[in-house]
Amino acid sequence: MKPVYFVHLQFLSAKKNFLKIEWIIKVLIFIFLCIALASPIVVDKLSPNNRHGKDIVLAIDASGSMNSSGFDFEDEVSEGERLSRFEITKIIASEFIKKRISDNVGVVLYGDFAFIASPITYEKEIVTQMLEYLTQGMAGQNTAIGEAIAIGVRSFKHSKAKNKVIVLLSDGEHNSGSVSPKEATKLANEKGIKIYTIAMGNKGEADEALLETIAKDGGGEFFSATSAKELKKVYSEIDKLESSNIKSREYILKEYFYQIFLLLASGLLLFLLYKEIRK
Fold it and tell me: How many other CB atoms are there within 10 angstroms of residue 17's CB atom?
């Protein structure tokens, strides 16, 4: 077998300047500094201007009666678990929120008093996550329907939507709070907010006459649900509400990456200085 010869192997010699580690490091330092000076960024532009949708607030009853079970007769939602009315409502409300693709949604929880559990936002995932943390009784054991509507109205303080809707759910009678349902409904009318009401539970448990009056005076519609299956149908009907244009600001998120290359260049420079000191 004839021997094989490789010519010009001297070019691969480590003695050549272009292969010296110091020279390579200096080139890398120069490149990294140039990149750092160029300041590379990633821009995430969110422009929700003229988004097609509306602002909706779900006012959910969290009084003592919402802790009772046996509402999901056909196992429509609970999947074999023994869930309370409040837990079933949260599941169905979450499904409703996820379907409102073009809308902003907020949540008001009420019992003895009412509070904004989640402000009106386009981030549906945040709202549904917040719903998971809510528990029955955290606002007291009574039912302040007037407070629920009044706080719901307050939720729209910064709303730019043409159509504003409150969907109020209750399984009891108004027996708490400093604001009457009539006063709160009048306030909603003045702000151009439509109110839909849902009576949840067996016939006669919720004050259907009051809820029907609120819906009528609030320009909305009254619904009744005696089971989880019916409650899902109610939310599906409300899901057919009209849409409107929402005006909101444009957000530009910038993430800078120059620090990475500046740190790399600094690290290599320190390495060269260390080698010089050791010589």
Answer: 7
